[in-house]
Amino acid sequence: MDYSSVERMSYAWEKCSELVTWNSNATVDLPECVSLASTWLECEKLTSIPLLNIPKVTSLSYTFYFCKALTSIPLMDTSNVSDWGGTFNYCTGLETLPALDFSSATTVRGAFSNSGIKTFGGPMELGNVTNFEQAFYSCESLTSLPYVDTSNGTNFKEMFHFCRALTSIPSTMDFSKATTFNEWCSDCNVLTDFPPNMFDVTDTLIPSAFTWAFNGCSLTAQSIENIFVSLDTNGSTNVSLDIIGGNNAGRPSWSAATNTAYDNLVAKGWTITFNP
């Protein structure tokens, strides 16, 4: 079929629950198409797609939502895609993404959540994104991330919630415009390592900025020191922080620097819960 003049394919094969393969061509040309929003939404038996030539597409919103049998995505030109909201949500069979171009992304809410993704093929240039809410929510196979540009991010709510295999956070993440981290890494049970200086500079934090942020993790005593000292350096006042539950290092293992930073934060009006 000739798709050369098609401008939108939104919802085209939505809920085709028996669709296993789509198009036998090696490449499908969609030179005028601007939206593939929800095109294969809930095609739960779809196993693969051909290479898509999509130079003008701006929306991949929910394109592959609940495509549970999809195991791979070809490397294609996504340089103009701005809306990645829910694109791979519930793609539980998808373990690896190629080095897709995210440089035009403005929306990534739930983009990779509930998927089987373990690795990303390259850096994620997300410098235009402000809302990272649930971007990687419940990616239970994700162990680590490549470089992620978060320089304009303000909302990091539940970004890694339930990422049960994640062991560390990239030290290159930029939170200079951040205002909230509610439930950010909650229930990341094997998250042990957290870099220093990550929160030295943020925007004005909301009062509940770190509520349940590190609940149920396994942060080492050094990681907790890194967090407390950085938040003390930040200078924010009257903020809540939860670093309780799981195997987070308890207070008896804290260093002198951690205890000093803790006392300073409490004096600034912080409310902090922690393992005794």
Radius of gyration using CA atoms only:
21 Å
- Class from secondary-structure proportions: little secondary structure
* DSSP summary: helix tally: 2
Shape: elongated
Which regions have little confidence, pLDDT < 50, spanning 5+ residues? none
Distance between the termini: 65 Å
Q: In percent terms, what proportion of residues is strand?
A: 5-15%
H/E series? EEEEHEHE
Mean pLDDT: 97
- Annotation, overall tally of beta strands: 6
The major beta sheet can be summarized as:
2 strands, parallel
Specify the helix fraction band.
under 10%
- Arrangement of strands in the largest sheet: 1-2
How are the SSEs placed, and which strands pair?
Layout: E1 27-29, E2 51-53, E3 96-97, E4 119-120, H1 221-234, E5 240-243, H2 256-267, E6 271-274
Parallel strand pairs: 1-2, 3-4, 5-6
Helix pairs in contact: 1-2
Quick structural gist:
By secondary structure, the chain is low in regular secondary structure. Helices cover 9% and strands 7% of the residues.
